[in-house]
Amino acid sequence: MGDDIIYVNVEDGLNRVLKNTKLYSNLLAKFKNYTQVEEIEAAFAENDMEKACNSAHTLKGLAANLSLTELFKQVVELELQLKAGQKNADQLALIKKVFAQTIIEVDKVIAQYA
What we know:
Largest sheet: none
Oligomer: single chain
Number of helices: 6
Distance between the termini: 28 Å
Radius of gyration: 14 Å
Strand content: under 5%
């Protein structure tokens, strides 16, 4: 992962909320409490690929709506793998890493606009 990775596309995110910085900041703050990554991990442990796929789909939507670009990209890949019946622990590990970095970037955006 290099410096060219976009974790939070702030311009796009703000466009989605009609440039309302307070709303975008609040939505990002709420996002930090979502547990889809943990749910996917638990579903992997239980070998419940349907649950993992559903959680991935939810996370994909959240990432798209908030313009969390890299997270969206990686979750799309995981969802495709799950739909194909593949349980890819490496992809889940990558998503966990991207999620952690996304939260760091989200905190910066929140600090800027809160």
